[in-house]
Design goal:
The protein has about 90 residues and is mostly helical. Helices cover about 60% and strands about 0% of the residues.
Amino acid sequence: MDDLQSNLFDGECGEDVHESLRLTFHDAIGFSKSGKFVGNGADGSMIIFANPEVNFTENAGIDDSVNALSPFLTRHAVTAGDLIQFAGAVGT
């Protein structure tokens, strides 16, 4: 928590917090152009499969938060899904 607050959010509710919160939604929502529900919820796919995930029109601009959070994944023993959801909770 301290690492995120100090090194990503700078201890304030700014743009990085807003982007992290948006990322929690985009990681959790299932989407399919065919209309069939797909996806497994908040699974970290936005970080794990950044390409193609961040390239979908619906995810425009989400690459900033994916890129900002990715280094934290290598520093902490957590899953990508947990990191995304934790960042959203810590930031708010």
